[in-house]
Structures are given as C-alpha cells and as structure tokens.
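Work package 3, deliverable 3.1, input record:
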Amino acid sequence: MLKALLKKQFYEMTAFLFISSKTGKRREPVALLGFGLLMLYAVGAVGYMFWLIAKTLCAPLVTGGLAWVYFALTGIMAAAFSCIGSIFTAKIKLYEAKDNDLLLSLPVKPWQILFSRMVGLYVLAFFFSAVVFVPAVAQYFITVGFSVLPAVYCLLITLLLPLGVLAVCSLLGWLIALVTSRIRAKNLVTVVLLLAFLAGYFYLYSKLNDYLNYVIAHGAAVGAKIRTALYPFWKMGLAAAGDGLALLPFAGLLVGVFAIAYILLSVTFLSVVTTKRGEVRPKYKEKPQKQGSAFFALLRKETGRFFKNPMLALNCLLGSLMALVLPVAALFNIDFLTRLSSADGLGQELAVLLFTALVCGVVATNIISASSVSLEGETLWLVKSLPVKTGKILAVKTAFHCLVTAVPVCIFTLTVGILLRLNALLFALALLIALAFTVFCAALGLVINLALPNLHWTNEVTAVKQSASPMLAMFSGIGAVALFVLGYFAFGKHLPAWGYMLICLAVLVTACIAMAVWLAKKGAELFERL
Amino acid sequence: MLKIENLTKRYGEKKAVDGLSLHIESGEIYGFIGHNGAGKTTTLKACAGILGFEEGEIFVDGVSVRKEPLACKQKIAYIPDNPDLYPFMSGIRFLHFIADIFQIGAKERGERIKKYADAFGLTADLALPISAYSHGMKQKLALISALIHEPKLVIMDEPFVGLDPKAAHTLKELMRELCDKGGAIFFSTHVLEVAEKLCDKVAIIKDGKLIKSGTMDEVKGDDSLEEVFLELAEK
C-alpha cells in the first residue's frame, strides 16, 4: 500500500517532466532534453549565486582556522533557503491536496498518506538545501584540497539536513493549516503571513553584504554565538570540517526532531484535513448590477483568479510586490543611492542604466501571463464556449499582466527617479523601457504558455510551480536583462546613455509588435486547439 | 435550428465521430444516447464550437459553426457533463460575468437571475464561492448561466447528473418551456427513461456512427427505448 502511495507521489512530482500536459503523452526525447537543460540552467543560476557567497566566506574563514564556522553558516543558509522553498508547498501538499478526500476514502491508514507526502517533501527540501550546500562544499575542497573522510561527512550532512528542514516546515505548515482551518478571514491571514515573510526575506537580502563582511571580520565571535545559540549547526560545522564524532549528535538531533514532528502530525493529520470550521456563510442580497463590457468581465475574472488565492498571487506577482517594497527600501537608503549616482560613484548615466536593469529584472519575476493559460485548467471549456474572440481573451490576459505590473513599476521608477533627481531625458527613457519591458514580458509569457500549457493539475499553485512556461518566461526575461547590461558594456558604453537606451527601447517595441502579431494569429489558433 | 452534416472528428488515427448527420428543428427536444466513448460528447462539443472538426458542417439557425463561431455561440448555451466553473467566483459574480459577456441589460439579468435561481432553489447560495458548491449546485448554476441569455439552442451533456429530484423536474419544465417558445434542445443522457418521456426525437450513436434516429415512436416502436438501445448496442 505504502509503495503504491509513494509511486503516486513521485509520479505526481515528476509527471510534468515526462508527460506533456498538452497531449497527455510521454514527451519526445528532444523535448525532454530541452526541458532538462532548462532545469539545469535554473538550478545552475541559483547554485552559482550561492557559490559566489561561499567563495566570499570560504578562504578568510578556513585560513583563519574557522572552517566549522564556514560550514555552519552555509548550513544555516541551506536550511533557510530550503525552508523558504518548502514551507508553503508543505502546507499545500500535506493539508490541501485535492486528492486528500480520495485517499482518505481508500483503505489506507492516514499515517501512510502523511508518510508518502513527507517523502515527497523530503526530496523537495533536499533539492533546495543541496543547491546551497553542495557549491559550498565544492568551494571548501577547492580551497583546502579534497579528502575522502570530510567528503563522506558532507554527503551525510547533505542527506540529513533536509530532515530538519522537513520537520520545521511540516510543523509550521501544520500550524498554518490548523489556524487557517479555524479562522474566518483565511485569505487575509495567509496574505499577511506571506507579506511578513517577504518583508523579512527582503530585509535579510538587503543586509546580506553587511552580514558577509561582518562574518569575515568577526568570524570567531560569530562562531561563539553559533556554538551557544545554534547547537545543531555548531555540530554540523564541526562534522563537515572533519570531526566525525560531531556527526552523531547532529544526526541524532535531526532524526529525533523529525520523529517528534512526524508523530505529532500523524496524530492530528486526519482532524486537520477534515476540519472546515469557522467559515462564514455569506448571505445573498439582491442588488442591481450595471451591464459591463465583455473585456472588463474577462479582466475581472483574471483579477479574481490571481487575487483570491494568496499563494498564486505570491508566486505570480512577486515582481509587483518587490516593486512596491523596493521604493520603501530606497527611501531608507537615499544617501547611498545619491553617492552611487554621483560623479565619484558610478555616475548618473551608468546608475540609470543599472537602475533600469534592476527594474526590468523585477518585472521579469512577474509570471502572470506565463501561467494564465495553464490556470484555465478544467474551466477552459467555459471561455471557449463564450461568444468572445480568442484574440480578445489573449489580449485580456496580456492586459492584466501589464496592469498589475506597470502600476508598481511606475511607483518604483518615479520614487527612485525623484530621489536621485535624475536627468529628465534619462528618467523618461528608463520609465519607457520599464513599461515596454512589462509589455514584452507579458506577451512573451503568453507566447510560451500557449506553446507549453499545463492544463491538468491538482492545485493551482502546481500549475505555476511545476510547469515549464513560468520558469522559462522568467529566465528568458532575466536573460534579456542580462543582454541589456552586457550589451552596454560590450558596445553601448561608446554611445551616450540616452542613445543606448533609445536603441534598446526600439528593439523592445519591435519585439512586442512581433509577438502581438503572432498572438493574434498563431497564438489564437493554438488556444483554440487546446 | 441545428443541422449537422456529415460530421467527422478524428483524434489521431481514430475517428471519434464518423460522418454523422442530424437535423434538429425549432421546438424539438432531441435526445442523444450511446455507450461511453461512443462520440456523444465530441459531437456536442463540436456543435458548441469548442472543438474543431475535420469534415462536415454544422449550422446553428442557418449559421456555420466553422465559419462564424461567434455568431453561433451567441445563439447557443452549452453545459458540459462536468460543470467546472470558476471556483474563485461567487455564484452571483459568475452569473454577472456571463451576463456581461452576452451583454444582458441590468433589468433583464436581474429578472432572469431571480426567476431561474428561485426555480432551482439556489438563490440563498448565490453569495457563496463556487468552490464551496456541491456538484448539484454547480450544475444548477451552470443551467442558470445557460438560460440567462435566452439561447435559441441549448446543448447539454448529461444535464440531470447530480440534480436533486425537484431540480430535475424544474429542468424538464424549463426545457419544454424553451422549446415551446421556439428554441431547441440537444442533450445526451444515459437515463433512458428520461429520454423516452421527455424527448420528441432521439438519436443513437455507436462507435462514432449514427445507427438510428427519428421520432421516439419511429425509434422504439412498441418496445421500450432501453430494449431498443440494448439490442442496437449489442449488434
């Protein structure tokens, strides 16, 4: 029985890799290879970022005799990254999976359902922690040279660390599910929790450089604090640095914490997944409703879809959220920004270019249109049965993406532009590029989603997280931003900044027009064939 | 009202519907029966303009589905076998969404929502999110949304599944009312007793091919529809 559940779990997790959601058939080898390469690129990009952090920390700490502090810190980073990546998935997969009712109706013990889901989550947590910890280990061996025993210890730590992450995520997921199953304003609470989480994340990210410098300068003091406050990471650090005996308390602690978490969850699993108390039954009051246009009806539909589900909003509207948070961060760092854009710093022209790249990078993380076709899912019949031109349906999807992205982006650009007292021409070009890039990302996302739709999912969030199109759209956008920056350093610096920006704007507008033409003809045909 | 001429739809090599022709006149309730996988849903979807087809033609009130799908969709209401509606909308929001798409005026939509929601006993639940609806409630909501724009032709796939007896009775009454006003209904069902009592005409499909069609008396003669169907299906 458990074997069947585990097989189902792994099939659910990996189906998007091997099965085409469009045809329901196994992917062609070439498509599989392309998808694999894309995944590798994504993992490589994140891994490279942590590689650079590890590189900054490794040599100063290891040569200072604080190798264990290095490992403890990278272990903390791996655990934190893995928690971020797994916590909300844990809540959804454990307590909100659409097949909970089906599985509970089968002659399967609840603990077996929980166990199979936790195994799936372990793999996810392992993936996230390994992306951070493996580059750190590699960096260590490059610095000190390879030896077998520490490598074995590091391997064991890589396998053990996700257990602790899983325990924490499951318990926090359980807590969130327990609270939200008993409260009325479920969506509001989830949104507040997510925003608090995001605020903390941005704060830590903005302070990352300061923290790294502090750690390098005060390695021993940081080590002492870890030793007293974070016992498991102290032991983990020692073990990774070659002290095999330290591995025993570390492993014992993680296995123990995981066992406690598992027992607690298995006892309460059934009651949490079947509790639906506290939901208010709204009363219907007849109210006159004005006739609206079909375009706005469709736009309201898209708005409802994305804003009624906080998890969906968080995953798809990350860029908009960042664009709203970053101006606040800019307000607190006016001095730094002014210095940066002064003649002694980067100079206004380069600062504006880099700021434009930053705004565009933020825009690229919005993956609304790249998920919007997939999210039609089983309701696709409805929109196809309506007397509305397919072109209009696609235009609404693009317009919604542009609207929810452009407003925060304008706020962000205007705030920074005013704070830095940017030259009017450069400022106007930065704003125009940001807006054109918003349209570019909206159209590109839709093009990619039409080519790679995922219409069969058990949870809306999986339609975003486990589909190729949102990831491909995001990385394509980031790739375009990288081209913008690299292009400037390669040949754009020989031009005045406004000239280079004008060329980029023209390229963007041309690409947008080309995609709009494609969407109106080929895109509409693809949508009708779904 | 609905003219299907030599309809052929393939999925890869397999012909799901093979040269099917049917004519449905105004005022007729036309039943469509066949075993699972016979091609009923494919035919209904093609008539509703949701699914393309390789050969043949479909006309709704004289308008080609292939050439003018939007004009046809304005005249049609389609209800699938499993009414997956937008779970993030409330019932009333969904009805207003459909009314906006079909450009129904404020007064008319208010009257029709009241009429049909009261008839199906769904008025008190209209403020609930659709995600909280049972299958039967979703089916009722889909039916109300189908009737809200007063379609000339209603295409329904297993419309009685999930409905409580009172709602099923109401639906039968509304079907007759719509046809008496000059509309037409084309629906599939596995409940042969319902088809026998309700339909003016019936068509039996097997492996994508029409094997018998006509008035109820022409198709079943002195036997019951169930006996005729089982005999034909086993041939």
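The longest strand of chain B covers residues 14-24.
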